[in-house]
Specification:
By secondary structure, this protein is an alpha/beta fold. About 40% of the residues lie in helices and about 15% in strands. The chain folds into 2 domains: about 220 residues, 3-Layer(aba) Sandwich (Rossmann fold), CATH 3.40.50; about 110 residues, Rossmann fold, CATH 3.40.50.1100. The relative contact order is 0.17.
Length: about 325
């Protein structure tokens, strides 16, 4: 892991984030549920993108950038945390945000993450529906270069090989915390979207020869499409750290059964999961990521895919700020 330790990184997040038991939810489901509180990373209300941004900002600084450009949906958690990181480190910030058809709209355009983006001083671009937002971002990059700026483009979700290093670090934390707690985890569940979180976790576990299955509950795309996306980034991450890419074989597990009608569109299972965690544990999930991830966990317990008495670690990737944009579903 010497390559890993030499990477450019800035310190942003509160680490290590705690692992907590969820006793009331565990009693209801008949399994032992623990939660890794990556909603408590600190930046802009917390979330998993903060870990990725530590490495992405490190790379941007090393390249002399003065402007961050990134893409996402209007209620993107990644965009919120990027805007906050830009403010913290003195970058200008350009957010290319696309509408998401099918989402509830009462508070969608003015509350939640979009409100925070504006508070952090980001400039927001709203391309027409159907526009390739990453292509738009690269065109914006060209314009900024011509105007004398030095922009740095961060991909969707911060899920480049550099961004995924944040979750290699998180895997290191989990391994140490499990040892300190004298606790073994049978499975890890995480909502998986742009792939960087799941790929990074797997890279870190593989580096330490830890074989805990990491199940990615898809928040967009089908099982196979997402599996291919995660596996490609996992292989790239292993290569980046001079590790054998063959270690990726058989390690990627994804499940597209809980996507519903699409990204950002809530399901009845999502709403139930959010209500259960709020009312049993005082933990806030979101309708886009963690609500769907927890819906998967709950259904796995009810269907027997997770056996009674198993020890399950759920990665809370944040996003509760988005609840305020979805208030009407509650």
């Amino acid at each position: 892991m010497s390559v890993f330790e030499q990477l450019n990184r800035v310190v942003i997040s509160h680490q290590p984030t705690p692992i907590e038991a969820m006793p009331r939810l565990s009693e209801k489901l008949g399994v032992n549920v623990f939660i890794k509180r990556d909603d408590c990373t600190g930046l802009a209300g917390g979330g998993n993108k903060t870990r990725k941004l530590e490495y992405l900002i490190g790379e941007a600084k090393s390249k002399g950038a003065d402007t961050l450009i990134t893409v996402g949906g209007i209620q993107s958690n990644h965009a919120r945390q990027t805007a906050a990181a830009a403010a913290k480190f003195g970058f200008d910030c350009e957010l290319v945000l696309e509408d998401v058809p099918g989402t509830v709209k009462q508070d969608y355009y003015a509350n939640g993450n979009i409100l925070l983006d504006k508070l952090f001083g980001a400039k927001i671009h709203r391309p027409e529906l159907g526009t390739d937002c990453l292509e738009y971002a690269y065109e914006l990059e060209k314009k900024l270069i011509k105007s004398g700026k030095t922009p740095f483009v961060i991909p969707l979700g911060g899920s480049s090989v550099v961004g995924s290093m944040g979750y290699v670090r998180c895997a290191n934390e989990i391994i140490k915390q499990a040892k300190d707690m004298s606790q073994q985890f049978d499975k890890i569940l995480v909502a998986t979207g742009s792939a960087g979180t799941q790929a990074g976790l797997l890279t870190g576990l593989i580096a330490h020869s830890v074989n805990i299955p990491v199940i990615g509950i898809c928040v967009s795309q089908d099982t196979e499409t997402k599996k291919d996306l995660v596996e490609a980034l996992l292989i790239e991450s292993l290569n980046y750290l001079d590790m054998a890419s063959g270690s990726a074989t058989g390690r990627v597990i994804t499940d597209g059964a809980y996507v519903g009608e699409g990204y950002g569109i809530h399901t009845t299972q999502t709403v139930e999961a959010i209500n259960l965690c709020a009312q049993l544990e005082g933990v806030l999930l979101d309708p886009v990521y963690t609500g769907k991830g927890m819906a998967g966990l709950i259904d796995y317990c009810r269907s027997g895919k997770i056996k009674q008495g198993e020890n399950i670690l759920f990665i809370h990737t944040g996003g509760s700020q988005g609840l305020f944009a979805y208030s009407e579903i509650f």
